[in-house]
């Protein structure tokens, strides 16, 4: 089965064993093949379900933010959510990046599926801010990712370093060391939001080391039962911590010294927060449906939802939608949550994907040379390192 290289927010192959790297067409541009049809690989509903549910949590988290200060319950839910939802996305991103090898086709899809949308939406978000805030002097900076675009920068950095991580004996330990050092270094991460890329790096690298059977083990009855007290404990801890604990710790966008604590505390806090994130991610994945559901097909459009929902979230801030007092009642909070779920579902739908594919997944044939051009221009003369005897080109 092919392991697709388009941004993992939009792809998920189906396989019964660990996927092996191979060529293949770009994901998200064809239709899924029903299992057993004999017509090629189909999408794995488990991962599409997981991605859809995570992107819905992203929308809920952004929608809850203005409500959190007035509700301890919402604040607690917000803390629990931010403790794991982006680490979960990073982990799944790593799992679907295992075959990335800097080959021309994969680099092409990385540029068209990550770099191009970053540039387009950085400009679009900036123009939208200027209009919404009536601040036409607001600068455009491609080195300072606006709002949610930090994840595209992180995904690019993670992807291009994948071959390095796959050569290391203990990649997760090395990535954790880098994350800890970044959290202790206030001078790191000014440009391109690199603090987040480095502090979430262990989750991505952990995903690189996983195989399908690891996800299968989470689905046993015993593991599911164990997740219940963990989830209950997280909810209680979130409710207890809500009045005093700042969610900024969970954003991982700055060093620990900016929270008025000594730098050495990063040695303890960063591993603890990442460990909590992995634990809660495991609890979440244990309950993700593995069968086709009404929302499975929406998992193919999570990149669209991620990029487009920012316009709605920012519009709610620019035009003070949350000033309505009824939104801060229990009924209003439920209404906001329902609208976040419904809105994200629409943004992940097939019609929206068809309408915005030209900016989220541009083909960009005009930008790249095809295989014949590369061969004609001398790529075939580039010396290749001899393969070691008995070396395997597959992935675990």
Automatic annotation (TrEMBL):
Keyword Coiled coil appears in the UniProt entry: no
Any one GO molecular function term: acyltransferase activity
Record keywords: Acyltransferase, Membrane, Transferase, Transmembrane, Transmembrane helix
Residue ranges annotated for the Acyltransferase domain, each copy included: 45-345
Residue numbers spanned by region Disordered: 1-42, 372-396
Transmembrane segments: 76-98, 110-131, 143-161, 223-242, 262-287, 294-313, 333-356
UniProt biased composition (Basic and acidic residues): 372-384
Any Pfam family matching the protein: Acyl_transf_3
Chain intervals with Low complexity compositional bias: 19-36
Protein's name in the database: Acyltransferase family protein
Organism (species): Streptomyces roseiscleroticus
Lineage: Bacteria, Bacillati, Actinomycetota, Actinomycetes, Kitasatosporales
């Amino acid at each position: 089965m092919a392991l697709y290289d388009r941004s993992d927010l939009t792809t998920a192959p189906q396989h019964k064993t660990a996927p092996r790297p191979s060529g293949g067409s770009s994901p998200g541009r064809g239709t899924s093949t029903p299992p057993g049809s004999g017509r090629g690989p189909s999408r794995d509903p488990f991962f599409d379900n997981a991605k859809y549910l995570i992107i819905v949590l992203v929308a809920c988290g952004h929608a809850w933010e203005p409500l959190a200060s007035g509700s301890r319950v919402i604040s607690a839910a917000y803390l629990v959510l931010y403790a794991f939802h982006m680490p979960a996305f990073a982990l799944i991103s790593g799992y679907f990046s295992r075959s990335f090898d800097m080959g021309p086709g994969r680099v092409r899809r990385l540029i068209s599926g990550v770099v191009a949308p970053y540039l387009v939406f950085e400009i679009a978000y900036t123009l939208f801010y200027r209009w919404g805030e009536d601040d036409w002097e607001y600068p455009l900076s491609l080195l300072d990712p606006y709002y949610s675009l930090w994840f595209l920068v992180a995904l690019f950095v993670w992807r291009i370093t994948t071959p390095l991580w796959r050569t290391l004996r203990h990649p997760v330990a090395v990535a954790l060391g880098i994350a800890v050092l970044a959290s202790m270094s206030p001078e790191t991460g000014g440009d391109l939001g690199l603090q987040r890329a480095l502090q979430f790096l262990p989750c991505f690298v952990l995903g690189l080391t996983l195989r399908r059977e690891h996800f299968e083990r989470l689905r046993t009855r015993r593991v599911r039962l164990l997740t219940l007290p963990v989830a209950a404990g997280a909810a209680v801890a979130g409710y207890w911590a809500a009045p005093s604990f700042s969610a900024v710790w969970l954003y991982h966008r700055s060093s620990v010294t900016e929270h008025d604590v000594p730098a050495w505390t990063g040695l303890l806090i960063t591993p603890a927060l990442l460990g909590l994130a992995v634990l809660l991610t495991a609890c979440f994945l244990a309950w993700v449906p593995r069968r086709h559901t009404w929302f499975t097909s929406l998992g193919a459009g999570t990149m669209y939802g991620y990029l487009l929902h920012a316009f709605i979230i920012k519009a709610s801030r620019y035009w003070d939608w949350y000033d309505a007092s009824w939104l801060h009642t229990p009924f209003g909070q439920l209404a906001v949550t329902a609208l976040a779920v419904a809105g994200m579902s629409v943004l992940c739908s097939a019609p929206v994907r068809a309408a915005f594919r030209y900016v989220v997944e541009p083909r960009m044939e005009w930008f790249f040379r095809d295989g014949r051009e590369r061969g004609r221009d001398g790529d075939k003369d580039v010396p290749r390192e001899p393969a070691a005897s008995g070396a395997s080109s597959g992935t675990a």
